[in-house]
Design brief:
Number of helices of chain A: 2
Shape of chain B: globular
Oligomer: heterodimer
Strand order of the largest sheet of chain B: 2-1-6-3-4-5
Radius of gyration of chain B: 23 Å
Amino acid sequence: MENKKKGPPISVDESNCAGCLICQLRCSLRFEKEFNPSRAAIKIRRLVGAENEYEITFTEKCDNCGICARFCPYGALVQQKKAA
Amino acid sequence: MDTYGFAGKILHVDLTTGETRAEPLDVDVARKFVGGRGMNHKLAYDLIPPDVDPLAPENPIILGAGPFSGTVIPGCCELTVTTKFPINGAIATGSGAGKFSLMMKTSGYDHLIISGKAESAVYLKICDDVVELCDASDLWGKDGNDTVDLLRERHEPCSIIPIGQAGENLVKVSVSQIDKGGTLGSGGLPAIMGAKNLKAIVAVQGTHGIKVADRKAFTKTVQGLLDRMMPWKGRDMLLRVGFSGEVSSSQFATFPYDNWSKVDFNEFTMEERKQILGLHAKSNKTLACPGCPMADKDRIRITEGKNAGVTGYVTGMILQRHGAEDIDEAYARSVRYSDLLNRYGLCELNFDFTFSLMAHLYSKGVITIEDTGIELKDDFETRLKVAEMTAKREGFGDILAEGTLEAARKLGRGIEEDYAVHIKGRTPHLDPRTAGLGTMPLTQLTDPRGAYPAGGGGPGYVPGKKPSEFARHGERMGIPPDAIDRIVSEDSWNVGRFTRYSQDWYSLWDSLGMCLRAPVSRFFHINTISELYSALTNIETPPSELMKAAERAWNLHRMLNGRVGFSRKHDKAPKKWFQTLSGPDGEEYPLKDYYGKIELKERDIEKALDDYYDERGWDKETGLPTPEKLKELGLDDLSLADM
């Protein structure tokens, strides 16, 4: 079941992704209390046949907490502003 | 039991029998050596027979991930490999960046030990408890990058250490590239893998997590680092031009040519260097290692002009003019050359300077077409041709494949004595005749691995830094205050003594699994590392204890090679360092001290070495740790007699 969303959606600009996996590491540390990309609610998939291009998706577990966007150093993930 | 920071297991794989075995990591022992690289040395002491042939099945490949690997500490992406290297027979450790250390830990392993020899070509795949030797007959013959592409199609998300043709043909001037971008094991790791019929090692993302003992303290310290790193003014430039851009823009990084006999600081004018940076910024997509906000790996695709379509993965590319008339062409040729070597798995430094030696000998008539079979001009097309011959051990390439020292010995004619430039069989990085005798040249003399510069980082990397900067850097890397007072004076500093601490600092970083490149390391203080290590592992570990563990790891490395037969007599400067280097307009560059004031002779190098051994507490005659030093480090069960 999809989690209740805590915040506004995360905008994704995959062209900026440098593949650092900080989003997955931060997500899993926050929710699973350990660094574990396989249990992160954000998935980074390398596109087959492309050179360092990634598809970024979120699992149902994601509650838009925004920690991935907060720590993305390359501008690939940005949390949208809350509506006024 | 929680093994905070560590994954908790060591995986053994025997390629001969196909048997695999996991054993628990003894965390107390690992901590005695920090982890990672240091623990590799402990395993090497137990597992590598001193007299083993590097290419024999009995020579194991020991991979290690440090306790910081796979976390969010910026720069925590190093993997270390310890083995007996074929280029010089030293038991040594190399390190490389990329995803492998993270992926290995997600399967629950801090170390992976591969021994034996497979009956036919295989690749090793690890995912959690499932360890498989997979048929690699369809991959054999392919270059390293193509191998990575094919294995990614099968196993993503994963990290891959492949070999190209150089490894398959047991070439000693070879290096692996983790995920196409992280050099690992120069001096022949690919040859060792090739001898084992091991085409690649694939760590697939597993399901294990890395636990942090005190998450609050840990994340607070990491945040403190990020608060300083993210706004750093050098970051924007780094993200645009990567590591190769940094190197290309530095006149200081100019390499001598014609076998270390000439140098031209104006090979590229400052205007041309700016043009190169512009080209690089337009062509480069910077790639990051896990956990790193300072991405500096280069994936280049030239999109404009006559060289549009030239692509390459390069790491710290050596920019050369390659006979090109314009900058666009020089840049494209440099990319093509670097990418070709990476694909074959040839080491840019050890191959290129062995080639340079041979071309020099050919021009002098010391060797002829009778030896080489081809006209050996020092030009771009010949370089490409000889790279292929070397990777495939074809014709004269079979000699080059051995590296500078062995090639010189095979050819005879006094080449080893009069022309070969090497330290323990490896090509040096940088030339002290242009940079002065800082920590970088001295660490290359004394590193048990042979010429390797990483242990001499810090201010000594760049010429002309004030003594006060060495004092400040020394405090940052945990040199005791009384030692700083002894080593650094108002107008100078002692290169031999300072190098000891510089190496211990590097030993610590490599053992933690950290990248020591300046854009990351400049933000770390030993106290920060101590806070992170304590919060991560749940055991309060003061800075002095960490530095002692790093020193212990370095001493063990030296002892490992003492039993192989290395001693002070191998810490020898190339004869070339004492010959004057010539500039294009008759300028002369003799070997001088760090500040370029005093010309140095061989006896001055010996004095610097005496200081170094003294600061280390080593015997000045043998260059090995004394029994008292080993006792102080808790290594008194080691002696050359029982090793």
